[in-house]
Amino acid sequence: MQVRAINPQTWLGAFNVNQAIEVTAGQRVLYVSGQTSNDASGAPMHPGDLVAQFRLAWKNLIEVLAAANMKPENIVRLISTLQMSTVLWRKLARWCRSLQRQDASP
Question: Has this prediction a pTM greater than 0.70?
Answer without folding.
Answer: no
